[in-house]
Amino acid sequence: MFVRLWKEMRQLGPTFLVVNLILLALGLFSHFTIENPNHEAYLLFSAWGLWVVFVIGVSLLSVLLYGNEFSFNTLDFLLAQGISRKRIWTEKILALWVLLTATYVSFSIGIWIIDDRAEFVPRLLADMNELVRAGFIGGPFLIFAISAAAPLLALYLRQTHTAFWLFVFSPALIYIGALVIYVFLVILGLRISIEFTHFPGPLILVFLSGFALFRWSFRRFERLEIRPGISGSETISKEWVILPKVSMDILLPNSAGSSPRLFAKEMRLQRVGFVLATLMVFAWGVSYAMVKVVLPDAIWEESGFINSIPELAIVLKVISVNALLFALPMIFGCDAFAQERNLGVEPWALSQPKSRLSQWSIKFEAAMIPALVGAIVATIMSDTWNHMVLSPQATGLDDGLRAVMGPHEWNLWTPLLLFSICFYTSSFARGSIQAFLYALGIFVATVYMVTVGRYSLHSIDIPLRAIEGLLDYPGFGFLFPVCLLFLLFSYSNFRARQDFTSSHFVPQVVAWVIAIGCFSMA
User: Fold this and answer.
1) What is the predicted pLDDT for the residue at 409?
2) In 3D, which of 413, 410, 467 has the Cα closest to residue 444?
3) In whole angstroms, what is the distance from residue 264 CA to residue 275 CA?
4) What are phi and psi of 425, to 5 degrees?
5) What is the CA radius of gyration of the chain?
C-alpha cells in the first residue's frame, strides 16, 4: 500500500513542489521587504497572491490526480492490476489529501508571516487580519470541496487541460450567470432585495455535497473500462501510443501540403483559448452594463444593492481584462505544441510532408495572432471602461474608486514575453499544464533577474517592478530580443523533436542568462 501511495505522490510531486515553493516565497517576500518604502503594496500583493496560488495549486493537484493517467495513457494499466477499484480509488484520494495538507501548511506559514508583518502597516491591519482569519478557517473547507469536485470533472472530461481551466473558472461563471439573471429581473421592474455579503452558507451543506461528489467520483471510477488486450503484467513503453477518440480527418494525408488546412487544424487545437476569450468578453460586457445602464437607475436605491455595484463591476472588469491580457497569451502559447501531445496526435502532425520550419511557422501564426488580438482588445476594453467610469454620468462611484480605475498606459511587452516563454516551454513539455508550470517559473525568474540586475547596476528604486514593472516601464521594451531568443529556442526544440535530449537545455540556459545580463545593463 505504501509503495502505491508513494507512486501516486511522486506523480504529483513536481506540481506539488512548485506550488509550495511559490507559497513560501510569497510569505518570505513580505518579510524581507519590511524596510522598503513600498512595503504596503508588497504586503497586499503577497496576501492576495497567496490566496490565488493556493486555490490554483489545490485545483491543479486535484485535477492531475486522474488527469495524469489520461495524459500519459496509463489508466488502463492502473485498472488492470489485481486490486479492487475501491482500494485504488482510496489510495489515490489519500495521496492527494497528504499533499493538499502539506500545501495548506505552506499556505498557513505564508499568511502567518503576513499577519506578523501587518502590524507595521496600521492602515491595512484590519484587512490583513480578515484575510488571515479566512485563510486559517476556510482553507480546510476549500481543500475538501476542491478535492471532491475537481477529480470528478477530470474523470468525465478525460483530460487535464480542459478540466483544470473549466474548474477554475466555473465558480466565476456561476456567479456571473446569477448576477446577470438578477440584473435582468431588476431591469424588468422586480424589486428583489438580496444580501450578498451575509450569506455564509451552512457548513453541513458543504460536507454533504462533498461526500456526495466523492461517492459520485467513485462510481464513475468503477465504471471505467479497460482497453481489450491489456493486462496488469504488461509494462509501459515510450513508443506506446493510444489513438484518441477525436476526428482525425484534418490530420490525414488528404490535407497534407495545404497550409490553410494545417492552419485550421492549429486553430481547432486552440479551442480552450477561444472559449476563455469569449467568456471574458462577456464578463466585461456585464461589468460595463452594470455601470452604464443599471447604476443610474433609481430602483437600485430601494433594493439595497447599489452599494455593491461599483465593487462588483470593478472586479469583473479587472478579471476580464487581465485574463485577456495575461492568461490568454499563456494558454495559446502552452497549447501550440503540447496540445497535440495531450491528444496523442503528435506523430501524425510530424509526419506531414511539410518542412519543420513551415510547420513551426504555422503553429506560431495560429497561436500568436489570437493572443495579440486578445491583448489589443483588452487594452481597448480597459480604455473604454475607464473613460466611461470617469465620466460625470457614473454618479454611483466615489472618488476612491475613480482613482483606482483611472487611465493607465498598457504595454504589450508583458503579453509578448509571456507568450514567447509559453511557446518555448510547449515545445518540450509533455502536456499543456506542464508547459504552463515551466513557463511560470521562467517568467518569474526572468522578471526577478531583470529587476535585481537593473536595481544593482543603476541603483534606481523600482516600486513593484517584480510584477507591474513590465507594464509601464518603457525600458522593458528592450525585452524584444529576449522574446526572439525564446522563439528561436522553440524552433530548435521542434526541429530536433525526435532526437530531443536534456543536453539541448545547456546552451539555451547560457544564452538566456547572457541575454538577461545584457538587458539589465541597457
Assistant:
1) 42
2) 467
3) 16
4) -65, -30
5) 24
C-alpha cell recorded at residue 6: 508513494
Q: Which of 462, 465, 481 is nearest to 522 (CA)?
A: 481
Can you tell me which residue has the cell 488527469?
A: 67
Residue type, 419: F
pLDDT computed for residue 151 by the predictor: 86
Contact partners, residue 276, CB within 8 Å, separation at least 6: 165, 169, 323, 327, 328, 331
Give residue 101's Cα distance to chain centre.
Answer: 21
Q: Are 92 and 102 in contact (CB under 8 A)?
A: no
Q: Which three cell numbers stand for residue 83?
A: 486490486
Cα gap 284→383, rounded to integer Å: 12
DSSP secondary structure string, 104-152? HHHHHHHHHHHHHHGGG-GGGHHHHHHHHHHHHHHHHHHHHHHHHHHHH
Question: What confidence tens digit (pLDDT) does each residue in 60-111 have?
Answer: 888 888 887 877 777 777 777 777 888 888 888 888 999 999 999 888 888 8
**Whole-number Cα distances in Å, 388 to 241, 324, 385, 402, 483:** 54, 20, 5, 10, 35
Q: What is the pLDDT of residues 357-382, one digit of tens each?
A: 888 888 888 888 888 888 888 887 87
What length is written for the chain? 522
Direct distance between the N- and C-terminal alpha carbons of the chain, in angstroms, rounded to an integer: 57
Give CA separation, 153 vs 74, 91, 209, 289, in Å.
18, 19, 15, 32
pLDDT value at residue 383: 74
Q: Exposed e or buried b for every residue in 276-311, given b needs 16+ CB within 10 A?
A: bbebbbebbebbbebbbebbeeeebeeeebbeebbe
Going from the C-alpha of 200 to that of each of 196, 358, 431, the distances in angstroms are 9, 55, 38
Residue 81 is placed in which grid cell?
492490476
- CA 65 centroid distance within chain: 17
pTM of the model: 0.55
